[in-house]
Model the fold of this input.
Amino acid sequence: DRDVTGLSIAVRPGGSVNGRLRVEDDKPLPPAQVLQRAIAFVSMLNPPPGTNSGAFGNRINPDGTFRVPFLVPGRYQVSATNLQGLPTVKSVEVDGTDMTDLPIEITPETAPKEVVATLTDQWQGVTGRLSDGAGAAATDYVVVLFPADKTYWLHGSRRIVAARPDSSGRFTLGGSGIFSVPPGDYLLAAVTDLGKDEQYDPALLNQLLQAAAPLTLKPGEKKTQDLVIR
Done:
């Protein structure tokens, strides 16, 4: 409630991401009316207060190109492109380097020149049943699927998925389109409860390592993996 003198504020211009979509095997892009309804997003890791939770997006043009401007300098997950109504994202290349589901630094000086997101009709997921030692449905738990490679233990990663079983103990992790879990090596575990976004906490995932069941998802694979609580 008083005037402040001698205060200096350094302001930097925002960065931007320019990209385009392609479909694997050089198949045609989805219809223009589908692309025009879609929005490309990039998500900031550890966003500072007041930055819209670190989510920035813009509409995709009918030719598959997109531009996400006015990005606060920081580390982003470009793989967080949200393609609602489109096939799933298979890979993301940043200036010719595969950065699928990995963070990149975006500043006015280091912003990528081009991001190429490749779409695929294939999708992956895991289903199963969670039970106790007597074979009864274990419904008071949350099932967590997370990557074996700790490099991908990032907040908001699409490789980390959690779901609560239904009354019969059945659970589903992943699905078609934007809900697909990328191919790779994973670990599957169950916890008694999860706080908001707690499944992304590396400390929790480290605790789950010893008791987790390993599994591998191949491109297009829908795997069944049951879990038993001991």
